[in-house]
Design a protein that fits this description.
It contains 3 helices and 19 strands. With 306 residues, it is α+β, with helices and mostly antiparallel strands. It has a single domain, classed as Jelly Rolls (Sandwich), CATH 2.60.120. Strands 1, 2, 4, 5, 8, 15, 16, 17 and 19 form a 9-stranded antiparallel beta sheet that branches. Strands 3, 6, 7, 9, 10, 11, 12 and 18 form an 8-stranded antiparallel beta sheet that branches. It has a two-stranded parallel sheet with strand order 13-14. Strand 15 and strand 16 form a beta hairpin. The radius of gyration is 22 Å and the shape is globular. The two termini are 24 Å apart.
Amino acid sequence: MRRLHNWLTLGPLFLAFAVLLSPIAVFADGFTYNGFGSVAGLTFKGSAATAVTTDGTVLRLTTANFSESGAVYSSLPFTLGASDIFSTQFQFRFTNPGGIDPADGITLVLAANPNGLGGAGGGMGYTGVPSSVAIEFNTYNNGLNLPTDASSNHVSIDTNGVLTDLALSNVYGNGSCGFTNGFPAQNPNTVPGCMSNGQLWTATITYDGSNLSVTLLDPTEGSTFNAITNYPINISSFLGTNNAFVGFTAGTGSGFENHDIVNWQFANTATLPTPEPNSLSLVGAGLLALMAITWRGKRLVARTLA
């Protein structure tokens, strides 16, 4: 009987804390994953899974192994705002590079279907995904096989599952990152400004209905890099719809690295709003309040009986 009494007393408290610590926040026009201890609302493809790291539970799109391809999408489509407005911010970390060089990178993708999984290696899990637009964060120079792939440390825009490399920009002006014995001759991947340097990077992407912008922040650089500024593109014309599944893809080939997404916020608004408490959080707050009242009542009874 005492055990039952203890559970009835403490059970709601444990539940309340579990709810309040949920990594997912929901607001009217999007979502926030502060981590990926819960992956509710996400669809996984290929090698993509979760992994526990020093950053917490992350989305691991590929592991540091040869020839993998992985993708994660929102399970439900988002109706983009007026003139297809959206904004998103996420943090990523690429670790454990090996093979011929750190490779190959990730994309942030908007697609008409949540099942697209493209080729491994230089395809970054994106090649072949139809009716889509992607922003790639590329860490390997496939220039011999992909003439548009002009550096081993760049951001660019791809469309309809083709690595078009529109608006290509070398990150922090450094287009050569890899192992010192890589091809072509490269800076070590550990230097500031190389996306494969193992640091926790922050990427912010905004779209005002007509123009796309991308910024990056490497903490070892200490200042924001404007990778793409107001690039004109009609995203809905590539998707063929105003409903978009949003997510990430990645690939490894003869070179590899862990491609981890540490947290992620998305909104179909021009700027990222402050998340409002979701219903679960409100339930958790209510349970905590109830526990406080119950605890205070017990103390009052104990004092009365003393």
